[in-house]
Specification:
CATH architecture: 3-Layer(aba) Sandwich
CATH class: Alpha Beta
Number of strands: 10
Number of helices: 7
GO molecular function, one term: ATP binding
Keywords: ATP-binding, Nucleotide-binding, Transport
Family: Belongs to the ABC transporter superfamily. Macrolide exporter (TC 3.A.1.122) family.
Order of helices and strands: EEEHEEHEHHHEHEHEE
Structural class: alpha/beta
Helix content: 25-40%
Number of domains: 1
Largest sheet: 6 strands, mixed
CATH topology: Rossmann fold
Protein name: ABC transporter ATP-binding protein
Distance between the termini: 21 Å
InterPro entries: AAA+_ATPase (IPR003593), ABC_transporter-like_ATP-bd (IPR003439), ABC_transporter-like_CS (IPR017871), ABC_transpr_LolD-like (IPR015854), MacB-like_ATP-bd (IPR017911), P-loop_NTPase (IPR027417)
Length: 231
């Protein structure tokens, strides 16, 4: 039996106050089991990015509950949320977010620096992560020396170097061509299948969402549909 990893219950999020207040989420209920691959879709302004930010502990609900396993995330303080991000979560973004003047290896090592891992262990784990995404031998290249697809592979290596349980991917193929997008999605899918990493991915592209096991559709701050994929 699969173990429940994430549960959102009645989550709301309002920005601003009074007449300037904007409600991004209006009572979102969502459960995700460990090892699932879930895509979150919705039009601009639907609230899908807000859901991602809350799952990633980058934002907190205005009301409602977020459980990561048995941990009530909304009760954590800022430092405790940062610790949860550091130890359990990995992030992949549309814009890669690599440091321009550092090598691929140094970019991948960055989360391990925050964890104060010894240098030898950082190097070894970063090399293993780069090899896992097909970039063995590219350790000394800077982002400017890499294609867009290679840069996203470095970003994925950085996201998995800490061996997270949850990978959050925000439009991971948004800056890539069709062939490269397919390669990146095959990589993310293989990490989910072979390593058991739970994946939650925001996308507006139906062909990208088709890689997931489930698609959650959000509209006007609410879950409109939650359906299994036929893939």
């Amino acid at each position: 039996m699969s173990r429940r990893l994430i549960r959102l219950e009645g989550v709301t999020k309002t920005y601003g106050r009074g007449g300037a207040a904007f409600t991004a989420l209006r009572g979102v209920d969502l459960t995700i089991d460990e090892g699932e691959f879930v895509a979150v879709m919705g039009p601009s302004g639907s609230g899908k990015s807000t859901v991602m930010n809350i799952l990633g502990c980058l934002d907190v609900p205005s009301s409602g509950h977020y459980w990561f396993e048995d941990l009530a995330v909304e009760r954590l303080n800022r430092d405790q949320r940062a610790l949860l991000r550091r130890n359990q979560l990995g992030f992949v973004f549309q814009g890669f977010n690599l440091l321009a003047r550092t090598t691929a290896l140094e970019n991948v090592e960055l989360p391990l620096l925050y964890r104060r891992e010894p240098a030898a262990r950082r190097h070894r784990l970063a090399q293993e992560a780069l090899a896992a995404v097909g970039l063995a031998g590219w350790e000394d290249h800077t982002p400017a020396e890499l294609s867009g697809g290679q840069q996203q592979r470095v970003a994925i290596a950085r996201a998995i170097v800490t061996r997270p349980r949850l990978l959050l991917a925000d439009e991971p193929t948004g800056n890539l061509d069709t062939q490269t997008s397919h390669e990146i999605m095959e990589l993310i899918s293989s990490l989910n299948r072979e390593r058991g990493i739970t994946v939650v991915m925001v996308t507006h592209e139906h062909d990208i969402a088709a890689w997931a096991q489930r698609v959650v559709h959000i509209r006007d701050g609410r879950v409109e549909r939650d359906e299994a994929n036929g893939r």
